[in-house]
Predict the 3D structure of the following.
Amino acid sequence: MSLTPDQQKALNYKKHIAVTANAGSGKTFVLSKRFVEIALDNETKLNNIVAITFTDKAAGELYTKIHKEINERISSEKDEEKLKKYERMRRQLISANISTIHSFCISLLKEFSPEANLDANFTPIDQETADELSSFAIEETINEMLNSEEPESLKELMRLFGSKKNMIEQLKTILAKRKLLESSDGILRNETKYYDELFVNEFEEIFSNKLDDLLEAIELVNSKVLDSDSQNDLALKVEYIFDKENRTVAKKIFSTFQILSKILTKGKLRQRGYLSKKEAANFENEIRIIEDSFSWVSFFDLPEDYNQSLNKMLLLKNKLLTFYKLIETKYEDLKFEEGYLDFEDILLFTKRILSNEYVLKKLSEKYKYIMIDEFQDTDDLQYKIFMPILDDLEKGNLFVVGDEKQSIYMFRDAELEVFENTKKEFKYTPERSQVVTLPHSFRMYPQVAAFVNSIFDRLFAESNPKFNEVKPQKLICTKDISEEGGVELLFAWKEKEVSESELVVK
Protein backbone atom coordinates (compact mmCIF):
# COMPACT_ATOMS: atom_id res chain seq x y z
CA MET A 1 0.00 0.00 0.00
CA SER A 2 1.49 3.33 -1.08
CA LEU A 3 1.47 6.42 1.13
CA THR A 4 -0.64 9.50 0.44
CA PRO A 5 1.23 12.85 0.46
CA ASP A 6 -0.31 13.63 3.87
CA GLN A 7 0.79 10.28 5.30
CA GLN A 8 4.27 10.93 3.94
CA LYS A 9 4.41 14.22 5.91
CA ALA A 10 3.52 12.34 9.09
CA LEU A 11 6.62 10.15 8.72
CA ASN A 12 8.97 13.09 9.20
CA TYR A 13 10.66 12.22 12.51
CA LYS A 14 12.95 15.23 12.43
CA LYS A 15 10.07 17.42 13.59
CA HIS A 16 7.42 17.22 16.30
CA ILE A 17 4.22 16.20 14.54
CA ALA A 18 0.55 16.55 15.55
CA VAL A 19 -1.80 14.59 13.29
CA THR A 20 -5.56 14.86 13.00
CA ALA A 21 -6.62 11.54 11.48
CA ASN A 22 -10.12 10.93 10.15
CA ALA A 23 -11.71 7.53 10.71
CA GLY A 24 -10.27 5.01 8.26
CA SER A 25 -7.35 7.25 7.27
CA GLY A 26 -4.68 4.62 7.99
CA LYS A 27 -3.22 6.10 11.19
CA THR A 28 -2.06 2.71 12.56
CA PHE A 29 -0.42 2.08 9.19
CA VAL A 30 1.40 5.42 9.56
CA LEU A 31 2.37 4.70 13.18
CA SER A 32 3.91 1.35 12.26
CA LYS A 33 5.88 2.82 9.35
CA ARG A 34 7.08 5.74 11.46
CA PHE A 35 8.22 3.35 14.21
CA VAL A 36 10.27 1.32 11.70
CA GLU A 37 11.71 4.42 10.02
CA ILE A 38 12.94 5.76 13.38
CA ALA A 39 14.39 2.38 14.34
CA LEU A 40 16.33 2.36 11.05
CA ASP A 41 18.21 5.47 12.13
CA ASN A 42 21.86 4.62 12.86
CA GLU A 43 21.82 6.28 16.29
CA THR A 44 18.44 5.01 17.46
CA LYS A 45 17.90 1.89 19.51
CA LEU A 46 14.54 0.24 19.75
CA ASN A 47 14.23 1.01 23.46
CA ASN A 48 14.68 4.74 22.67
CA ILE A 49 11.18 4.70 21.15
CA VAL A 50 7.92 4.81 23.13
CA ALA A 51 4.57 4.11 21.47
CA ILE A 52 1.56 4.78 23.71
CA THR A 53 -1.86 3.44 22.76
CA PHE A 54 -5.22 3.79 24.49
CA THR A 55 -5.97 0.09 25.10
CA ASP A 56 -4.06 -3.18 25.37
CA LYS A 57 -5.89 -4.35 22.25
CA ALA A 58 -4.67 -1.32 20.29
CA ALA A 59 -1.13 -1.96 21.55
CA GLY A 60 -1.37 -5.55 20.27
CA GLU A 61 -2.62 -4.36 16.87
CA LEU A 62 0.20 -1.84 16.56
CA TYR A 63 2.76 -4.47 17.53
CA THR A 64 1.34 -6.83 14.87
CA LYS A 65 1.46 -4.12 12.17
CA ILE A 66 5.05 -3.21 13.04
CA HIS A 67 6.02 -6.88 12.94
CA LYS A 68 4.31 -7.25 9.56
CA GLU A 69 6.03 -4.11 8.24
CA ILE A 70 9.45 -5.45 9.28
CA ASN A 71 8.78 -8.85 7.70
CA GLU A 72 7.71 -7.25 4.42
CA ARG A 73 10.88 -5.18 4.32
CA ILE A 74 13.04 -8.22 5.09
CA SER A 75 11.46 -10.17 2.23
CA SER A 76 12.18 -7.39 -0.30
CA GLU A 77 15.43 -5.88 1.03
CA LYS A 78 18.62 -6.41 -1.00
CA ASP A 79 21.00 -4.25 1.02
CA GLU A 80 22.90 -6.48 3.49
CA GLU A 81 23.37 -3.76 6.12
CA LYS A 82 19.70 -2.83 6.14
CA LEU A 83 18.74 -6.50 6.18
CA LYS A 84 20.79 -7.02 9.35
CA LYS A 85 19.08 -4.03 10.97
CA TYR A 86 15.62 -5.34 10.12
CA GLU A 87 16.44 -8.78 11.50
CA ARG A 88 17.87 -7.28 14.69
CA MET A 89 14.78 -5.10 14.94
CA ARG A 90 12.53 -8.13 14.64
CA ARG A 91 14.40 -9.94 17.44
CA GLN A 92 14.23 -6.92 19.75
CA LEU A 93 10.58 -6.10 19.02
CA ILE A 94 9.37 -8.39 21.81
CA SER A 95 10.75 -5.93 24.39
CA ALA A 96 9.71 -2.72 22.59
CA ASN A 97 7.90 0.04 24.51
CA ILE A 98 4.49 -0.41 22.89
CA SER A 99 1.83 -0.19 25.58
CA THR A 100 -0.89 1.83 27.30
CA ILE A 101 0.05 4.88 29.39
CA HIS A 102 -0.58 2.92 32.60
CA SER A 103 1.64 0.00 31.54
CA PHE A 104 4.40 2.44 30.60
CA CYS A 105 4.13 4.23 33.95
CA ILE A 106 4.15 0.94 35.86
CA SER A 107 7.46 0.03 34.22
CA LEU A 108 8.91 3.42 35.25
CA LEU A 109 7.72 3.02 38.84
CA LYS A 110 9.21 -0.48 39.01
CA GLU A 111 12.53 0.86 37.71
CA PHE A 112 12.58 3.87 40.06
CA SER A 113 10.66 2.47 43.03
CA PRO A 114 13.16 3.87 45.63
CA GLU A 115 12.78 7.37 44.19
CA ALA A 116 8.99 6.92 44.19
CA ASN A 117 9.12 5.69 47.80
CA LEU A 118 7.39 2.47 46.72
CA ASP A 119 7.92 -1.22 47.30
CA ALA A 120 9.17 -2.56 43.96
CA ASN A 121 6.67 -5.43 44.34
CA PHE A 122 3.63 -3.14 44.40
CA THR A 123 0.45 -4.52 42.88
CA PRO A 124 -1.71 -2.51 40.44
CA ILE A 125 -5.37 -3.05 41.33
CA ASP A 126 -8.48 -2.95 39.14
CA GLN A 127 -11.36 -0.54 39.60
CA GLU A 128 -13.51 -3.09 41.43
CA THR A 129 -10.88 -3.58 44.16
CA ALA A 130 -10.33 0.19 44.37
CA ASP A 131 -14.09 0.72 44.82
CA GLU A 132 -14.21 -1.83 47.65
CA LEU A 133 -11.34 -0.12 49.47
CA SER A 134 -12.75 3.38 48.98
CA SER A 135 -16.20 2.29 50.22
CA PHE A 136 -14.62 0.80 53.34
CA ALA A 137 -12.53 3.96 53.94
CA ILE A 138 -15.60 6.19 53.60
CA GLU A 139 -17.81 4.08 55.88
CA GLU A 140 -15.09 3.86 58.54
CA THR A 141 -14.48 7.61 58.47
CA ILE A 142 -18.21 8.39 58.67
CA ASN A 143 -18.63 6.13 61.69
CA GLU A 144 -15.63 7.71 63.42
CA MET A 145 -16.97 11.21 62.75
CA LEU A 146 -20.49 10.39 63.94
CA ASN A 147 -19.09 8.97 67.16
CA SER A 148 -16.76 11.94 67.70
CA GLU A 149 -17.44 14.94 69.91
CA GLU A 150 -18.26 17.19 66.91
CA PRO A 151 -20.46 15.29 64.42
CA GLU A 152 -22.42 18.40 63.35
CA SER A 153 -20.27 19.29 60.33
CA LEU A 154 -20.77 15.77 58.92
CA LYS A 155 -24.52 15.94 59.52
CA GLU A 156 -24.59 19.28 57.71
CA LEU A 157 -22.89 17.68 54.71
CA MET A 158 -25.47 14.88 54.70
CA ARG A 159 -28.25 17.49 54.66
CA LEU A 160 -26.51 19.29 51.78
CA PHE A 161 -26.36 16.10 49.67
CA GLY A 162 -29.86 15.05 50.65
CA SER A 163 -28.89 11.72 52.17
CA LYS A 164 -25.97 9.69 53.46
CA LYS A 165 -26.09 7.56 50.30
CA ASN A 166 -25.76 10.57 47.98
CA MET A 167 -22.89 11.95 50.03
CA ILE A 168 -21.03 8.62 49.86
CA GLU A 169 -21.45 8.46 46.07
CA GLN A 170 -20.05 11.99 45.67
CA LEU A 171 -17.10 11.23 47.95
CA LYS A 172 -16.32 8.08 45.96
CA THR A 173 -16.32 10.18 42.77
CA ILE A 174 -13.93 12.74 44.29
CA LEU A 175 -11.65 9.97 45.50
CA ALA A 176 -11.62 8.30 42.07
CA LYS A 177 -10.75 11.64 40.43
CA ARG A 178 -8.36 12.99 43.04
CA LYS A 179 -5.80 13.86 40.37
CA LEU A 180 -8.10 16.78 39.50
CA LEU A 181 -7.61 18.13 43.03
CA GLU A 182 -3.86 17.90 42.61
CA SER A 183 -3.80 19.59 39.21
CA SER A 184 -6.29 22.38 40.02
CA ASP A 185 -5.26 25.21 42.33
CA GLY A 186 -8.63 26.94 41.94
CA ILE A 187 -10.64 24.39 43.90
CA LEU A 188 -8.52 25.01 46.99
CA ARG A 189 -8.96 28.79 46.97
CA ASN A 190 -11.22 30.53 49.47
CA GLU A 191 -11.79 34.04 48.06
CA THR A 192 -15.35 34.70 46.92
CA LYS A 193 -13.94 37.20 44.42
CA TYR A 194 -12.05 34.39 42.64
CA TYR A 195 -15.19 32.27 42.11
CA ASP A 196 -17.28 35.31 41.24
CA GLU A 197 -14.84 36.34 38.50
CA LEU A 198 -14.49 32.73 37.35
CA PHE A 199 -18.25 32.43 36.85
CA VAL A 200 -18.54 35.78 35.06
CA ASN A 201 -15.60 35.06 32.74
CA GLU A 202 -16.88 31.59 31.86
CA PHE A 203 -20.39 32.91 31.29
CA GLU A 204 -19.12 35.71 29.04
CA GLU A 205 -16.97 33.33 27.00
CA ILE A 206 -19.90 31.01 26.36
CA PHE A 207 -22.85 33.38 26.08
CA SER A 208 -21.47 36.87 25.25
CA ASN A 209 -23.02 37.04 21.76
CA LYS A 210 -26.34 35.63 22.91
CA LEU A 211 -26.40 37.96 25.90
CA ASP A 212 -25.92 41.12 23.79
CA ASP A 213 -28.61 40.05 21.29
CA LEU A 214 -30.96 39.20 24.14
CA LEU A 215 -30.52 42.53 25.92
CA GLU A 216 -31.07 44.41 22.65
CA ALA A 217 -34.28 42.46 22.01
CA ILE A 218 -35.56 43.10 25.56
CA GLU A 219 -34.79 46.82 25.25
CA LEU A 220 -36.72 47.14 21.98
CA VAL A 221 -39.74 45.27 23.33
CA ASN A 222 -39.72 47.14 26.64
CA SER A 223 -39.46 50.52 24.87
CA LYS A 224 -42.54 49.64 22.82
CA VAL A 225 -44.49 48.73 25.96
CA LEU A 226 -43.56 52.09 27.56
CA ASP A 227 -44.47 53.98 24.37
CA SER A 228 -47.94 52.46 24.56
CA ASP A 229 -48.26 52.80 28.32
CA SER A 230 -45.70 55.01 30.08
CA GLN A 231 -46.96 53.86 33.49
CA ASN A 232 -46.79 50.11 32.78
CA ASP A 233 -45.64 48.70 36.13
CA LEU A 234 -43.73 45.73 34.70
CA ALA A 235 -42.00 47.78 31.98
CA LEU A 236 -40.92 50.39 34.54
CA LYS A 237 -39.39 47.66 36.71
CA VAL A 238 -37.51 46.29 33.69
CA GLU A 239 -36.25 49.78 32.82
CA TYR A 240 -35.05 50.29 36.39
CA ILE A 241 -33.17 46.97 36.38
CA PHE A 242 -31.53 47.76 33.04
CA ASP A 243 -29.35 50.55 34.52
CA LYS A 244 -27.67 51.56 31.26
CA GLU A 245 -24.94 53.46 33.06
CA ASN A 246 -23.47 50.28 34.56
CA ARG A 247 -23.08 47.68 31.82
CA THR A 248 -20.25 45.52 33.19
CA VAL A 249 -20.48 41.85 32.23
CA ALA A 250 -21.47 40.87 35.77
CA LYS A 251 -24.17 43.55 35.83
CA LYS A 252 -25.53 42.47 32.46
CA ILE A 253 -25.74 38.83 33.59
CA PHE A 254 -27.61 39.51 36.81
CA SER A 255 -29.81 42.19 35.22
CA THR A 256 -30.81 39.74 32.49
CA PHE A 257 -31.71 37.02 34.96
CA GLN A 258 -33.87 39.45 36.96
CA ILE A 259 -35.63 40.83 33.89
CA LEU A 260 -36.45 37.43 32.40
CA SER A 261 -37.92 36.24 35.68
CA LYS A 262 -40.43 39.11 35.38
CA ILE A 263 -41.33 39.14 31.67
CA LEU A 264 -41.41 35.39 30.99
CA THR A 265 -43.98 32.94 32.25
CA LYS A 266 -43.33 29.26 31.56
CA GLY A 267 -40.82 30.28 28.91
CA LYS A 268 -43.24 32.56 27.02
CA LEU A 269 -43.30 36.37 26.94
CA ARG A 270 -46.11 37.82 29.06
CA GLN A 271 -48.98 39.33 27.09
CA ARG A 272 -51.40 40.19 29.88
CA GLY A 273 -50.12 43.33 31.58
CA TYR A 274 -47.08 43.68 29.29
CA LEU A 275 -46.91 43.26 25.48
CA SER A 276 -50.33 42.76 23.91
CA LYS A 277 -50.91 40.13 21.24
CA LYS A 278 -51.49 42.88 18.65
CA GLU A 279 -48.20 44.65 19.47
CA ALA A 280 -46.33 41.33 19.60
CA ALA A 281 -46.96 40.80 15.87
CA ASN A 282 -44.40 43.55 15.11
CA PHE A 283 -41.67 41.98 17.27
CA GLU A 284 -41.62 38.36 16.16
CA ASN A 285 -37.80 38.18 15.87
CA GLU A 286 -37.19 39.88 19.23
CA ILE A 287 -39.76 37.67 20.98
CA ARG A 288 -38.17 34.57 19.46
CA ILE A 289 -34.75 35.64 20.83
CA ILE A 290 -36.22 36.32 24.28
CA GLU A 291 -38.19 33.08 24.45
CA ASP A 292 -35.32 30.99 23.05
CA SER A 293 -33.11 32.34 25.83
CA PHE A 294 -35.25 30.47 28.37
CA SER A 295 -33.59 27.18 27.34
CA TRP A 296 -30.13 28.34 28.45
CA VAL A 297 -30.91 30.98 31.09
CA SER A 298 -33.20 28.65 33.03
CA PHE A 299 -30.26 26.30 33.45
CA PHE A 300 -28.85 28.78 35.98
CA ASP A 301 -30.54 29.29 39.31
CA LEU A 302 -28.97 32.44 40.70
CA PRO A 303 -30.50 33.62 43.99
CA GLU A 304 -30.83 37.32 44.77
CA ASP A 305 -28.45 36.90 47.71
CA TYR A 306 -25.80 35.56 45.34
CA ASN A 307 -22.75 36.67 47.37
CA GLN A 308 -24.20 35.25 50.55
CA SER A 309 -24.77 31.94 48.76
CA LEU A 310 -21.19 32.05 47.48
CA ASN A 311 -19.87 32.42 51.04
CA LYS A 312 -22.01 29.51 52.16
CA MET A 313 -20.72 27.41 49.28
CA LEU A 314 -17.10 28.10 50.28
CA LEU A 315 -17.83 27.19 53.89
CA LEU A 316 -19.39 23.88 52.88
CA LYS A 317 -16.63 23.21 50.34
CA ASN A 318 -14.01 23.56 53.09
CA LYS A 319 -15.94 21.19 55.36
CA LEU A 320 -16.23 18.69 52.52
CA LEU A 321 -12.50 18.92 51.72
CA THR A 322 -11.59 18.50 55.39
CA PHE A 323 -13.73 15.38 55.59
CA TYR A 324 -12.42 14.15 52.24
CA LYS A 325 -8.81 14.46 53.44
CA LEU A 326 -9.60 12.11 56.35
CA ILE A 327 -11.06 9.58 53.91
CA GLU A 328 -8.14 9.92 51.51
CA THR A 329 -5.65 9.28 54.33
CA LYS A 330 -7.51 6.12 55.39
CA TYR A 331 -7.77 4.96 51.75
CA GLU A 332 -4.04 5.50 51.21
CA ASP A 333 -3.24 3.59 54.43
CA LEU A 334 -5.36 0.63 53.32
CA LYS A 335 -3.55 0.47 49.97
CA PHE A 336 -0.13 0.91 51.57
CA GLU A 337 -0.73 -2.03 53.91
CA GLU A 338 -1.33 -4.32 50.92
CA GLY A 339 1.19 -2.70 48.56
CA TYR A 340 -1.58 -1.63 46.18
CA LEU A 341 -1.65 1.15 43.58
CA ASP A 342 -4.85 2.13 41.78
CA PHE A 343 -5.06 3.69 38.30
CA GLU A 344 -4.85 7.24 39.66
CA ASP A 345 -1.81 6.37 41.81
CA ILE A 346 0.10 5.02 38.83
CA LEU A 347 -0.11 8.35 37.02
CA LEU A 348 0.29 10.54 40.11
CA PHE A 349 3.37 8.71 41.38
CA THR A 350 4.93 8.84 37.90
CA LYS A 351 4.37 12.59 37.66
CA ARG A 352 5.91 13.08 41.10
CA ILE A 353 9.11 11.14 40.37
CA LEU A 354 9.68 13.34 37.32
CA SER A 355 10.53 16.16 39.73
CA ASN A 356 13.55 14.08 40.74
CA GLU A 357 16.49 15.37 38.65
CA TYR A 358 18.23 12.00 38.59
CA VAL A 359 15.11 10.21 37.31
CA LEU A 360 14.33 12.89 34.73
CA LYS A 361 17.91 12.86 33.41
CA LYS A 362 17.82 9.07 32.99
CA LEU A 363 14.48 9.11 31.21
CA SER A 364 15.45 11.99 28.91
CA GLU A 365 18.60 10.13 27.90
CA LYS A 366 16.69 6.92 27.22
CA TYR A 367 13.45 8.01 25.52
CA LYS A 368 14.21 10.02 22.40
CA TYR A 369 11.00 9.42 20.48
CA ILE A 370 7.51 9.39 21.98
CA MET A 371 4.45 8.53 19.89
CA ILE A 372 0.96 8.81 21.40
CA ASP A 373 -2.15 7.40 19.72
CA GLU A 374 -5.78 8.52 20.42
CA PHE A 375 -4.45 11.84 21.67
CA GLN A 376 -7.97 13.31 21.76
CA ASP A 377 -8.56 11.17 24.87
CA THR A 378 -5.45 12.32 26.74
CA ASP A 379 -5.78 14.34 29.92
CA ASP A 380 -3.58 17.08 31.34
CA LEU A 381 -1.85 14.78 33.82
CA GLN A 382 -0.72 12.36 31.10
CA TYR A 383 0.55 15.30 29.04
CA LYS A 384 2.56 16.52 32.03
CA ILE A 385 4.23 13.12 32.29
CA PHE A 386 5.63 13.16 28.77
CA MET A 387 6.57 16.81 28.40
CA PRO A 388 9.33 16.87 31.07
CA ILE A 389 10.93 13.78 29.49
CA LEU A 390 11.26 15.76 26.25
CA ASP A 391 12.33 18.90 28.14
CA ASP A 392 9.16 20.67 26.95
CA LEU A 393 9.97 19.77 23.33
CA GLU A 394 13.51 21.15 23.52
CA LYS A 395 14.83 17.59 23.21
CA GLY A 396 13.75 14.40 21.48
CA ASN A 397 10.69 14.06 19.29
CA LEU A 398 6.95 13.99 19.98
CA PHE A 399 4.38 12.51 17.61
CA VAL A 400 0.69 12.64 18.54
CA VAL A 401 -2.27 11.45 16.50
CA GLY A 402 -5.98 11.68 17.20
CA ASP A 403 -9.36 12.85 16.00
CA GLU A 404 -11.44 15.29 18.03
CA LYS A 405 -14.62 13.90 16.46
CA GLN A 406 -13.92 10.52 18.05
CA SER A 407 -13.40 11.75 21.61
CA ILE A 408 -15.81 9.81 23.85
CA TYR A 409 -13.96 9.66 27.17
CA MET A 410 -14.79 12.96 28.89
CA PHE A 411 -16.26 10.88 31.72
CA ARG A 412 -12.71 9.60 32.26
CA ASP A 413 -11.35 13.16 32.27
CA ALA A 414 -10.21 13.27 28.65
CA GLU A 415 -9.51 16.89 27.68
CA LEU A 416 -9.75 17.97 24.06
CA GLU A 417 -7.96 21.19 25.04
CA VAL A 418 -4.74 19.19 25.43
CA PHE A 419 -4.86 18.18 21.75
CA GLU A 420 -5.91 21.65 20.63
CA ASN A 421 -3.22 23.42 22.65
CA THR A 422 -0.56 21.02 21.36
CA LYS A 423 -1.54 21.78 17.76
CA LYS A 424 -1.50 25.52 18.45
CA GLU A 425 1.97 25.25 19.99
CA PHE A 426 3.22 23.31 16.97
CA LYS A 427 1.82 25.93 14.57
CA TYR A 428 3.74 28.67 16.40
CA THR A 429 7.05 26.80 15.97
CA PRO A 430 7.09 25.71 12.28
CA GLU A 431 10.88 25.42 12.31
CA ARG A 432 10.69 22.42 14.64
CA SER A 433 7.02 21.33 14.55
CA GLN A 434 4.30 20.54 12.06
CA VAL A 435 0.53 19.98 12.08
CA VAL A 436 -0.75 17.39 9.61
CA THR A 437 -4.26 16.23 8.65
CA LEU A 438 -5.10 12.81 7.24
CA PRO A 439 -8.42 13.52 5.47
CA HIS A 440 -8.58 10.38 3.33
CA SER A 441 -10.87 7.50 4.21
CA PHE A 442 -9.94 4.04 2.99
CA ARG A 443 -13.17 2.54 4.36
CA MET A 444 -16.03 4.58 2.92
CA TYR A 445 -17.71 4.40 -0.46
CA PRO A 446 -18.08 7.73 -2.35
CA GLN A 447 -21.81 8.20 -1.65
CA VAL A 448 -21.36 7.50 2.06
CA ALA A 449 -18.47 10.01 2.32
CA ALA A 450 -20.56 12.64 0.47
CA PHE A 451 -23.51 12.05 2.82
CA VAL A 452 -21.33 12.37 5.93
CA ASN A 453 -19.71 15.57 4.62
CA SER A 454 -23.09 17.12 3.83
CA ILE A 455 -24.67 16.29 7.19
CA PHE A 456 -21.75 17.21 9.42
CA ASP A 457 -20.97 20.45 7.60
CA ARG A 458 -24.33 21.60 9.00
CA LEU A 459 -24.24 19.86 12.39
CA PHE A 460 -20.81 21.29 13.22
CA ALA A 461 -21.39 24.67 11.54
CA GLU A 462 -21.56 26.60 14.85
CA SER A 463 -19.07 24.64 16.91
CA ASN A 464 -18.13 25.90 20.37
CA PRO A 465 -14.72 24.59 21.56
CA LYS A 466 -15.80 25.36 25.13
CA PHE A 467 -18.14 22.37 24.92
CA ASN A 468 -15.63 20.17 23.08
CA GLU A 469 -17.50 20.81 19.84
CA VAL A 470 -15.33 20.55 16.75
CA LYS A 471 -15.33 22.13 13.32
CA PRO A 472 -16.49 20.09 10.30
CA GLN A 473 -13.75 18.35 8.36
CA LYS A 474 -14.19 16.90 4.89
CA LEU A 475 -13.69 13.18 4.31
CA ILE A 476 -11.93 12.33 1.06
CA CYS A 477 -12.92 8.96 -0.37
CA THR A 478 -10.05 6.88 -1.76
CA LYS A 479 -11.95 3.80 -2.92
CA ASP A 480 -11.27 3.35 -6.62
CA ILE A 481 -14.17 1.02 -7.46
CA SER A 482 -17.25 1.11 -9.63
CA GLU A 483 -19.72 0.63 -6.76
CA GLU A 484 -20.55 3.98 -5.21
CA GLY A 485 -22.27 2.75 -2.06
CA GLY A 486 -25.46 4.18 -0.61
CA VAL A 487 -27.22 5.54 2.45
CA GLU A 488 -30.53 4.27 3.82
CA LEU A 489 -32.64 5.95 6.50
CA LEU A 490 -34.62 3.70 8.87
CA PHE A 491 -37.86 5.15 10.22
CA ALA A 492 -39.92 3.82 13.11
CA TRP A 493 -43.20 5.19 14.43
CA LYS A 494 -43.27 5.49 18.20
CA GLU A 495 -46.62 3.79 18.59
CA LYS A 496 -45.28 0.62 16.93
CA GLU A 497 -42.35 0.51 19.38
CA VAL A 498 -39.94 -1.03 16.88
CA SER A 499 -36.38 -1.08 18.21
CA GLU A 500 -33.38 0.15 16.25
CA SER A 501 -31.87 -3.35 16.30
CA GLU A 502 -35.07 -4.84 14.76
CA LEU A 503 -35.01 -2.25 11.96
CA VAL A 504 -31.36 -2.98 11.16
CA VAL A 505 -31.99 -6.73 11.07
CA LYS A 506 -34.98 -6.31 8.73
